[in-house]
Amino acid sequence: MSRVVVDVMLKPEILDPQGKAVHGAFDRLGFDGVASVRQGKRFEIELTGDAGPEAVAEIERAASTLLSNPVIEDYTLHVETEA
Amino acid sequence: MSRVVVDVMLKPEILDPQGKAVHGAFDRLGFDGVASVRQGKRFEIELTGDAGPEAVAEIERAASTLLSNPVIEDYTLHVETEA
């Protein structure tokens, strides 16, 4: 079994109120040195088989249609090899 | 400026209805070969300075108190070097 990780983040030009709220909390709680915070989603997808090119292409298709909204979000995808 | 990424996921023993819903959608939409899906949060934190040991320890403290609920969630933290 292998794992594919898809990270979905708002595009840089899209306002991120969740991230802004977290940044505000950092300031209030005295965590210094933070310039900005962006919050996104992380999907850990366990495959029944190997993460071959075909399986990864399938997940890539899902990432761009089901897991992210391509109008406002970018995704990155990587295969994770477990230690 | 450097970036620290904090990934927050539900602990393995905690039920993940969001992930389950995504997994169900995979099945319905014909994406095969998926054994399970877990959904979590990703925080991209830009620091004003370098990601030295002190700054990272500070973010680590924030990750365990502000960004995650240690009762039900685990977090991982890594410093990202931009290409």
TrEMBL record, chains A, B:
Gene3D superfamilies: Phosphoribosylformylglycinamidine synthase subunit PurS (3.30.1280.10)
The name this protein goes by in its record: Phosphoribosylformylglycinamidine synthase subunit PurS
Keyword Ligase among UniProt keywords: yes
GO molecular function ontology, one term from the record: phosphoribosylformylglycinamidine synthase activity
Subcellular location: Cytoplasm
Predominant place of localization: cytoplasm
Function: Part of the phosphoribosylformylglycinamidine synthase complex involved in the purines biosynthetic pathway. Catalyzes the ATP-dependent conversion of formylglycinamide ribonucleotide (FGAR) and glutamine to yield formylglycinamidine ribonucleotide (FGAM) and glutamate. The FGAM synthase complex is composed of three subunits. PurQ produces an ammonia molecule by converting glutamine to glutamate. PurL transfers the ammonia molecule to FGAR to form FGAM in an ATP-dependent manner.
Xref: InterPro entries: PurS (IPR003850), PurS-like_sf (IPR036604)
Subunit organization: Part of the FGAM synthase complex composed of 1 PurL, 1 PurQ and 2 PurS subunits.
Catalysed transformations (reactions): N(2)-formyl-N(1)-(5-phospho-beta-D-ribosyl)glycinamide + L-glutamine + ATP + H2O = 2-formamido-N(1)-(5-O-phospho-beta-D-ribosyl)acetamidine + L-glutamate + ADP + phosphate + H(+)
Signal peptide per UniProt: none
Gene Ontology biological-process entries: 'de novo' IMP biosynthetic process
EC number(s) on file: 6.3.5.3
Pathway linked to the protein: Purine metabolism; IMP biosynthesis via de novo pathway; 5-amino-1-(5-phospho-D-ribosyl)imidazole from N(2)-formyl-N(1)-(5-phospho-D-ribosyl)glycinamide: step 1/2
Xref: Pfam families: PurS
GO CC annotation, single: cytoplasm
Keyword entries, A-Z: ATP-binding, Cytoplasm, Ligase, Nucleotide-binding, Purine biosynthesis
Family to which the UniProt record says this protein belongs: Belongs to the PurS family.
